[in-house]
Amino acid sequence: MHVLVLGGTTEARRLAENLAGALPAGARVTSSLAGRVASPKLPPGEVRVGGFGGAEGLADWLRTHRVDALIDATHPFAGTISFHAASAAAAAHVPLLALRRPGWVPADGDRWHPVGSLAEAAQALPGLGERVFLTTGRMGLAAFAGLDAQWFLMRSVDAPDGPHPARMEILLDRGPFTLDGERELIRRHRIDVLVTKDSGGDATAPKLTAAREAGVPVVVVRRPPVPDGVPVVPTPELAGDWLSGLRGRQAL
Predict the structure, then answer these.
(1) Residue 29 main-chain phi, psi, to 5 deg
(2) Residues 218, 194: contact at Cβ < 8 Å?
(3) What's the pLDDT at 198?
(4) Average pLDDT, the chain
């Protein structure tokens, strides 16, 4: 059996680690990374870096490398690759599973403002605050480039390029983040509004608690949908169970 994991997330690494010692002799796991992070944490097993050339390129890769199962464990906001994966899996007749960590749920005292896109997040900011903690990643900064009245603290793993807000400080850091650290960051920079994507998981969730404690409103960008008809599981362990069931059916 050959399993291709579309990765780049903590869950994808955990899945590769789990499968490294669980698959039978002769089975292979290949993790594919998009290559957008300069120094990614590599999972065990075979690793490829870079795109496939769209859905057709991915379908060709699945056929050429005789992939028996495809697991989309990409970031919840990596929407394009998820739809390419669905198209490619259907074309190559390869079973597909989506591994998605659960989204965040507001708690008592949260002041959340859900929006559908980064552009909508930018439109919401003028009425919410002037000192913005922006944690949506470096790829979407152009959506905020036209905001001159706000000051931005932008946190990301790698330095951004391209259009960005004129008044911006860059903080290069990688999670997981602590609650004490997020409290101090909000206090020190006098943050009065937080912008985030609903990425889910524990690594970056402390900022939500810190914002709640400080009474800071949070603009939350909703997730794009998973393609219709693709089964979804929330944990690497359940993805492993899916693979075990698939191996059992293929052995019949």
Answers:
(1) -125, 125
(2) yes
(3) 95
(4) 92
Please state the pTM of the whole predicted model.
0.85
Tens-digit pLDDT profile for residues 171-196: 999 888 999 999 999 999 999 999 99
Tokens of 60: 């060709």
Block residue for tokens 């900064």: 141
In three-state secondary structure terms, 222 is: coil
Rg (CA), the chain: 20
Closest CA to 188 of 157, 210, 164: 210
Locate 65 and state its tokens.
């490398």
Cβ burial 93-130 (10 Å sphere, 16+ → b, else e): ebbbbbbbbeebeeeeebebbebeebeebbebbeebbe
> What tokens appear for 97 in the block?
């599973």
C-beta of residue 237 within 8 angstroms of C-beta of residue 18: yes
pLDDT tens track for 1-45: 999 999 989 999 999 999 987 777 778 999 999 876 666 778 888
Residue 251 has a pLDDT of 54
Helix (H, G, I), strand (E, B) or coil at 54: helix
d(CA 226, CA 88): 15
